[in-house]
Hints:
By secondary structure, the chain is an alpha/beta fold. The chain contains 15 helices and eleven strands. The strands form two sheets. It has a seven-stranded mixed beta sheet, with helices on both faces. The chain has a four-stranded mixed beta sheet with strand order 1-3-4-2. The longest helix is centred in the last third of the chain and has 19 residues, at 313-331.
Amino acid sequence: xGNHMKDxxxxxxxxxxxxxxxxxxxxxxQPHEVDIYQRQLEELxxxxxxxxxxxxxxxxxxxGHHVSGIxxxxxWRNTLLxxxxxxxxxxxxxxxxxxxxxxxxxxxxxxxxVGVAGMSVGAGIAVAMAYxxxxxxxxxxxxxxxxxxxxxxxRESLLDVGRPKIELAAERIYEINPFARxxxxxxxxxxxxxxxxxxxxxxxxxxxxxxxxxxxVHLRLRARDLRIPLIMFTSLGDNIxxxxxxxxxxPDAPLFNGLLGNIDEExxxxxxxxxxDIKKYSIKLVGQQYIPTAALRSVLxxxxxxxxxxxxxxxxxxxxxxxxxVVRRLILNETMPSGRYFIQFAQLFNLASTDLDESADRTxxxxxxxxxx
Length: 373
């Protein structure tokens, strides 16, 4: 596993232990032990023989017809896990995807390399892909730590407050699949490491969930140069905006699907973005027509009564599932055109909604954001 954690503090991944190491860990660490090996053997037999009886399983088990077992040590839990080997675990973890996803497709998904920048919305997306058996090799980038206020939308706990978000995401991935290969960029994306993020090895897809506007532009420039598709999910109250940029199919495409004019040049031309610049670009990048009035007003409160943009768990959770769907279609070379896709929860249920309607309150918020009036 590549490890780029800052301050020389290296995240310790789980390790497969041999018999000698097993006894040493037991003596020195006194770990909690979890043994799911026998249960997994039963599952494997049922999968391979769906019409077999329990007696038939007992007979084949007595004859020794089963796969090898391994021990894995999880240092952050101080736990030893006894389970089946990598191939058998892959079979178990992906079996209930069949026949919605074929075995050949599942292997193709597992072999993809996906980069996820930003571990708020991005953490949910990364973990959702792990559950789906996508991107055994995944690259994660984020420099931030978990705050209590993040728990309105991140599936972590109070016991994790103060810890790096990237570590928490990696732990959840490893606990789903101990053979995963998260490559962790704990300093976030920088001019110095963006090359490794994209190229070492080359990404199949990049997912942009970062707040840094300059880096958003650099992500797209690099993705376009390398012909790598990019997707971005933006949660807007009870609405979700999905951007798909198919640089793999359209290597000369303008950034942001050409919807924002020369905003990329404008952003890069500034040495430093002021708080007012950030507020304006946050509206321009999304498109004011997609932003609920309450969310527009919240932008004005950032730095006053709010420390950051409000988001809801209901949309963040949906982001993870939708992103997995989009990533799967891209990897399997199924139809997924470039474009901007807008999802309104109220519309899905045929409910009336006025959160995007023109109003004096909306006009006032926009005037104050762009004109300071």
